[in-house]
Amino acid sequence: MMMNFLCSILLALTLLPAFAADSLSVKKAFIGPPELVLPPPVDSALLRKLLITQRLERKDTEQADFKNRQNILLLNSLLLQTETAVQPDASLIGTLEQALTQYINAGDIKSQALVYNTYAVYYGRYGQRDKAIYYFNEALRLKEMVKDNSGIVQITENLTAIYKMEHQYDLAIKFAEYFASTNIGLRKTALAAQTYLDIASMKFEQGKYKESENYILKKAFPIFQRTGNKVGRMNCFQSLAELYFHQQRYSEAKWFYIQSQIMAEKLFDNHAMISSLAGLGKVKTALGEYTDALQDYKKAEQLALKNNYLTKLVEINADLGEMYSQLGDYPAAGAALDQYSRFRENWIKTNKL
Fold this sequence. Notes:
Layout: H1 2-29, H2 44-80, H3 90-93, H4 96-106, H5 109-125, H6 129-145, H7 149-165, H8 169-185, H9 189-205, H10 209-226, H11 230-246, H12 250-267, H13 270-286, H14 290-307, H15 310-327, H16 330-350
Helix pairs in contact: 2-7, 2-15, 2-16, 4-5, 5-6, 6-7, 7-8, 8-9, 9-10, 9-11, 10-11, 11-12, 11-13, 12-13, 13-14, 13-15, 14-15, 15-16
């Protein structure tokens, strides 16, 4: 019995250091605060690049909206110039149905057309373009019956603008052709030639570059050349430059922008001068001629500031943001985009829809 007791004591004394070591090791694992894992250091240059990239993406979306707003203002301006029976507002539009019935019974085609115009203008101004298209087509049918070419010109111009806004370019081109041919019949060749440039721009939007070039070189330019219209020829040069730029035909684009710049100087046309300088800035940026590009952009910006051309200031600073980003100068890109946003907001405030 005593022997068993002594053996137990000896066994306990033998195991005691191991238990003590285990206890100490366990306690040591919990001594002091837990080890902190620090995040990697922030790469400020990378962060600036990411922020500018995001702003440029947002700018692209905003520019599409900006262009759409300009088109809405153009359409509204055309609609306000359209001959109507009465003021096309909600308080009067409901009274026209009875009047239209009377005009139909009386065979008064001119008055019927005016009522249809009134409906079309009303719905066009309030964004219901499908209804505007329907009523303008009804008015056009009547104008054709009485061979009212002035009325045909007005309505086809409106339909061109509406279809263009809806990106239905084939229909827009159809009515633009009608508008141009009617104006030629009225001996308003400058309007017809300018319309051919508009058709060229729509062909460009469709990616039909060769057709776009043909409308400029074979239809618009010969009319402007024959009639001695220098402004028209300058517009042709700018259209060709823009077309060639988007086809990456940079040497040709550069040459035509320079020609349009020379003509703009002779004509004292500040708006055209700004467009030409900004166009040269885009071409030179694409060619990697950044120093010269910046000089052109700055000249364009100073001229736009002097004449308070907000639209051009928006476009120029948007392009500068892109150029500085390509150069990796993200602080300068951010400053240009700040200017772009400020001018864009001012333009929107000034031009209410």
